[in-house]
Design goal:
The structure is a single chain. The chain is an alpha/beta fold and 491 residues long. The protein folds into two domains: 2-251 and 466-489, 3-Layer(aba) Sandwich (Rossmann fold), CATH 3.40.50; 274-461, Glycogen Phosphorylase B (Rossmann fold, 3-Layer(aba) Sandwich), CATH 3.40.50.2000. Helix content is 38%, strand content 20%. The chain contains 20 helices and 18 strands. The protein has a nine-stranded mixed sheet with strand order 3-4-5-2-1-6-7-11-12, sandwiched between helices. α14 links the parallel β14 (327-334) and β15 (353-357). α1 (18-32) packs across α20 (464-480), α4 packs across α5 (139-146) and α7 packs across α8 (203-210). The longest helix has 17 residues, at 429-445. The protein starts with a strand and ends in an 11-residue tail after the last helix. The structure holds adenosine-5'-diphosphate.
Amino acid sequence: MNVLYAIFEASPFAKTGGLGDVGGALPQFLKEGGVDVRVIMPKHDAIPERFKSKFRKIFNFQMQLAWRQLYCGVEMLKYKGVTFYFIDNEQYFKRDSLYGYDDDPERSAFFCKAVLECLTKLDKFKPNVIHCNDWHTCLIPVMLKEYFGDHPYYYDIKSVVSIHNLKFQGITGRYHLGDLLSMEHHSAARDYLSWEWGEAINFLKGSFYYADAITTVSPSYAEEIKTPFFGENLDGVLRQREDRLFGILNGVDYDEYDPASDKAIYGAYKRGEWEGKALNKAGLQDEMGLPAEPDVPLLALISRLTEQKGVDLLAHVMDELMAEDVQMVVLGNGDWFYEEKFHYFMSRYPDKLSARIGFDEKLAHRIYAGADMFLMPSRFEPCGLSQLIALKYGTVPIVRETGGLKDTVAPYNEFSGEGTGFGFVNYNAHELLFAVKRACALYRASKEAWRVMQLAGMSADFSWKASARRYIKLYEGLYKRPKVTRKEIRL
Ligand code: ADP
């Protein structure tokens, strides 16, 4: 089984967020599962020189994109056993940032066409499946069928589109249908890509009609996005295509996040080594300027400070929360409004709340290790990584039961003692507050019950291995037959 994994960012070459983590990790695990997987991404200027200097140029060619005649170079590097191809065009990719430019639709169209055109020139590698990620790569299924559908080399190649964030869809002016894609007279493409809201086209929407399968990063989110609340105006299309929509949970890289081998924390600890956890709590309280209180519940929030993450709920009940006998540490950045809110709360409750506004990976590790509870009251959450990391560090998550949070955190059952965290259902600030109060009550009432819950979380396996197995089943199903069923990949 040969898979070409098309993505705009992959760690350690280029990363702006979770997508880069997936691009760096999943291909390794697909390879371990027996897939000949190759990653293809732009040669961004941001790729560190230590990698760029090792790239090997394999070929270049001239490519037509509507009326444009463009240079396209292809370079490669083998990294941890996986072959990475880099598409080179300085006009499009020699930029300070990966995204955020007016011509992003043009950069994306160039990349997608270049991926398809370079295939026939690759030595001894023909993909059975092209796996595309988010809107920047999702014109590939459209072009695969419309430009290359009758070509003997391409006609049996299948395509998969993965949605990592449905909010970003690649919406651009309708004139691009002709100016970028030369499809202005093509009635099917025009219908599939057209976007009712304004004179626009929508790349992601188009790909939903052309891809052989659509995946997103958790089973619950795959259901939610078929409803208007989560669907970002694409719920109707997703309902139409639900027979080929699958939710496959993301994984965590336990080489990076494991308290037993973590070098960034105050002291490594394994499951059941509670003194180690206590040492990290004391270290964190000291570092964050909070009083050393081993028995006071220490809450943590590590997050982008945006409304998606539910920080508005937290701000709403912060005074009531601070009236409890708790401490809290916050690490995050994002909307100025919330950054300022946390500065304000810190000045109001200096002995209870300590907030760091910024991005600090090392401190994040120490917070996962030192806190007792981890807050994630998200409005929506396609998968969520932070709660998975918290579980591994024996830090009990308190989450809103949505998307990937619902799939990964089992709510505490006071009768059976089972569960790995606490949850609340409605997007309501007091439901969050009551969930925190329930958690604190158990923390104080029974150390034993609390430890059972910590152990259950630390034993849960959210490694990439299981996710990779599901993707492989999906690819195999697609390759053998035009369609696969949910049951076949056991979701
Ligand atoms: P997102 O929607 O932001 O991708 P996830 O939960 O999937 O949310 O992943 C967030 C990742 O970013 C986690 O590894 C978390 O620890 C990390 N992170 C978020 N904010 C910060 C920050 N301010 N400093 C350090 N790490 C952060």
